[in-house]
Write a structure and sequence with these properties.
With about 500 residues, this protein is an all-alpha fold. It has one domain (about 5-485). About 75% of the residues lie in helices and about 5% in strands. It contains 21 helices and two strands. It has a two-stranded antiparallel sheet. Strand 1 and strand 2 form a beta hairpin. Helix 9 packs antiparallel against helix 14 and helix 14 (about 325-355) runs antiparallel to helix 20 (about 455-470). The protein is globular.
Length: about 500
């Protein structure tokens, strides 16, 4: 098969898998086998594209051409390759986790869950390999619509309310802000194709500044305040859905889109000379700190992790807005590093809920003695989110910090350092409470020592990933140097 055909299959295979999952919905073992086979196939397809991309090739295919100057097309470039590797691998691991969680929690409507999960991954690969802004927008909206049934999975009034907030904010920002920005871009540049160096050099500084603002806030999945409330609201969903939202697809699609727009629509050189981007950097910095402070006050574990995600996403936005190669490298690497760290934390939260039915941090005293594997994984992932060795989070934050220095933004460097201290304050007390405090239940046993094996296996894999990315960060770094044009 040619690389172009493989790129097309990366979008189609999850849809074929969704059809098989639906067909075998009454046979759980076959249904879940179909899920796993599809996930393995997808990751193998994505991985097979890596040698071509590393060699400098960018496979391209036109899916449709609705107008002579507008196409729906796929192009596998290095930034998209990085995102596709992350999403396809973590979908495989999340599928393993979901089998243990959904069965252990006796969740209803499991077939529907797996079907929409597969559709969402198809849309995610479409976002990753989009060759132009129109294609990205189409798959971006399919991702929104396909994840609404996952957010409302429980069917409760709370879940339905969360779904309304989720759909309202994401569709509202897309249709009212992002779509006009895309139309404006096409009118100014005459193209929507992602191009090295950008396509907007002929526009005026004032229009560039306004257009950049529209993209930053129109891409609502990036959760820059005040368009962030959909993310904490969606935590009513099952934990595998939370993992999808925070690590595999939705929020990563948002920050990926922002990095892609800054590099391939505006261009780093153009943005670096745009003084009006300064207030947007401070808006991202405010989100970093404000969300961290809110996380400190949350006793519900998933709520704390949700606000942590809001904060960490703006690291990536901030790096993109700094508009220099080092910061852009840091942003791309943080998509990967945060993905592994945050999915592990949510896996652990779900494992605790399945094994002990506990959701509040104040209830987790002494839990590490009953769930040592889970809480050790939580500790490792916490180190990665904070940015401490020996975890991969150190490297993405290192390059983001270097990017602030290259831009002479010492105040923003202070924001990054303070945020890491706040991350330490809201994450590390959880494993400390679990391992070094006496159990609050006076020694009574929980219903299970650890979560079901598939869930436990998944969180072990992703926590090991956090460690391996410390020792082997070269692939993500090399892909990002190809994005920025910086010599490796």
């Amino acid at each position: 098969m040619t690389p172009s055909i493989i790129a097309t299959l990366c979008v189609l295979v999850p849809l074929i898998g969704a059809a098989l999952i639906y067909a075998f919905g009454r046979h759980p073992n076959i249904r879940e086998a179909a899920t796993l086979v599809t996930a393995v196939t997808l990751f193998a397809l994505v991985l097979s594209l890596l040698p071509d991309v590393m060699a400098g090739s960018q496979p391209f295919v036109i899916l449709a051409q609705p107008l002579p100057t507008l196409t729906l097309a796929l192009k596998v470039e290095p930034l998209g390759m990085l995102f596709a590797l992350l999403a396809s691998f973590l979908w495989l691991v999340t599928s393993v986790y979901s089998i243990g969680y959904m069965r252990g929690h006796d969740e209803p409507n499991q077939t529907r869950f797996y079907v929409y999960f597969a559709v969402a991954i198809s849309a995610t690969l479409g976002v990753a390999f989009a060759a132009d802004m129109l294609t990205l927008f189409v798959f971006y909206e399919v991702l929104t619509l396909s994840t609404v049934p996952l957010v409302t999975h429980a069917g409760t009034n709370e879940a339905k309310r969360a779904g309304r907030i989720y759909l309202g904010l994401l569709l509202g920002t897309s249709l009212a802000i992002l779509l006009p920005a895309i139309i404006w871009t096409w009118m100014v540049a005459g193209t929507l194709a992602f191009t090295a160096g950008g396509i907007l050099s002929i526009a005026s500084p004032m229009s560039i500044a306004l257009l950049l603002t529209m993209y930053i806030f129109g891409i609502g999945k990036a959760a820059v305040m005040p368009f962030h409330r959909w993310l904490p609201a969606a935590m009513v969903a099952p934990t595998p859905v939370s993992a999808l939202l925070h690590a595999v697809a939705v929020v990563k699609a948002g920050v990926f889109a922002i990095v892609k727009v800054t590099v391939y629509v505006f261009g780093l050189d153009l943005l670096a000379d745009l003084g009006a981007r300064q207030w947007l950097m401070y808006a991202a910095a405010f989100t970093v700190l404000a969300a961290s402070l809110v996380a400190l006050r949350k006793d519900n574990l998933k709520a704390r992790l949700a606000y942590s995600t809001v904060s960490q996403l703006s690291y990536i936005v901030l790096g993109a807005l700094l508009a220099n190669p080092l910061a852009t490298i840091g942003s791309g690497m943080h998509i990967l590093m945060h993905g592994f760290g945050k999915i592990t934390l949510f896996f652990c939260a779900g494992a605790i809920a399945v094994a002990t039915h506990k959701t509040e941090i104040s209830q987790m005293r002494g839990l590490g003695r009953r769930m040592p594997v889970t809480m050790t994984a939580f500790f490792i992932a916490s180190l990665s989110i904070i940015g401490l060795p020996p975890t991969g989070g150190l490297w993405s934050k290192w390059y983001l910090a270097l990017g602030t220095l290259e831009a002479n933004e010492t105040l923003l460097l202070g924001v990054l350092l303070l945020s890491s201290l706040l991350s330490l304050a809201y994450l590390l007390p959880i494993p400390v409470r679990a391992f070094f405090y006496k159990a609050a239940d006076n020694g009574h046993s929980y219903s299970a020592l650890e979560a079901p094996f598939p869930a436990l296996l998944a969180l072990v894999i992703t926590s090991l990933g956090c460690l391996l990315l410390f020792f082997y960060p070269e692939l993500s770094y090399q892909l990002m140097t190809r994005v920025t044009g910086r010599a490796s």
